[in-house]
Amino acid sequence: MRLTDLAKVVEGKILNIEEDLEVKSFTIDSRSSTQDSVFIPLKGNTDGHSYIEDALKKGSVGYLTEKPLNFKNGILVKDTYQALKKTAIYKRKSIDTVVGITGSSGKTSTKELLNFVLSNFYKTHATSRNYNNEIGVPLTLANTPENTHIAIIEMGAGKVGDIDYLNNIVNPDIGVLVSVGHAHVEKFGSFENIIKGKGEIFNTSHYHVLPFDLLNYYKDKLKKFITFGEEGDIKVYDIRITPEGTTGKVAYKNQVLDLTIPIFNKGIFKNIGAVAGVLYHLGLDPIESLKVLKEFNQIQGRGKIIKIGNLTIIDDSYNANPLSVKNAIETLNEIPTVKVLVLGDMLELGEESEKLHRSIAKEILKSDIDYVFLYGEETKYIKQELEGKKYVLHTDKKEIANQLKKLENSSPTVLVKGSRGMKMEEVIEYLKN
Predict the structure, then answer these.
(1) pTM summary value
(2) Which of the two ends of the chain, N or C, has the fewest CB atoms closer than 10 A to its terminal CB?
(3) How far, in whole angstroms, is CA 74 from its chain's centroid?
């Protein structure tokens, strides 16, 4: 695509184009401008139009704008965000297959696992980081390289209607629901609305993948579907934590795969079940194709293992909700070392927050976790439940790091988790420094 082609796609007017340069990527952040990119200024807390000159200096070949400007290689449009959407929808038409992934937890891990497997068979493109909202999704599609066979798009939702909005851009062929829990219940309003909102992933897709235990909620709207889980079509079971990582079995019909992944996360096998479901819909062997996952490693903040002195850190700090925290507790509980849970608040739980934090304390009490370090306003409810029953400390991040250093001689495993807004990775940074 060249600048003049882009102008047609976004229904824009060319401004001062000196040379019809090739466009290979799009950015909304002038700091990440490259020599083949077009800068799209969006209006948010600041007006992106203020950074057009910076983007051009850093190498962008052109820019979109809602204001007539004198900089070279501009395209004047009515609305830069709508222009981004038009670009995404245009790019979508050239992609053979799009997989849309949503869920209360496990979206990013499933996306990473699926991309890791499918890249052995196809030219793939996947959501980077957590670009899963109304800006990140069209930006991901707009940046799809030419000749991409399969795009894997993570789709987030905070309320009913969000997934349907993204469906109109993504138009997924395969819709994957990884899980449903109490994440964002404050915005959704109720658990029933979470079920409804996450289920929108099935509204436009032709092939569906979902957990067996959610089938009753959606069976009336499903077309061609496959389930995963202990009782699913794709069976996932016998999941254990070992010194080498997480071990489990994945089976379909008469095929059974024993798989060990170098990650401490029991929930990862549910995500693998979802991956197997996508492989099935693509006509690939849903079990044999998974063997490459023995080489998979998790990204930062999503269960990555970090060694700091005699501390083994499981960095699961990227986000947290009741479902993922319960899984984290189960994972940590099976590691045969001194066990330390570092937990920040679970946010966006609304009126359910106190009850759900207290429910996490009950999960901790059922476990063999030795130390619990808490941070944040809402985790005080966990402390109240644990007082006198477990070693529990409710303090700031720096003091948590200091306490962890004091435990170093016992060579503990430390799992760090909390909602994104709690920035629990800062505990790990204090330890490193």
Answers:
(1) 0.80
(2) C
(3) 34
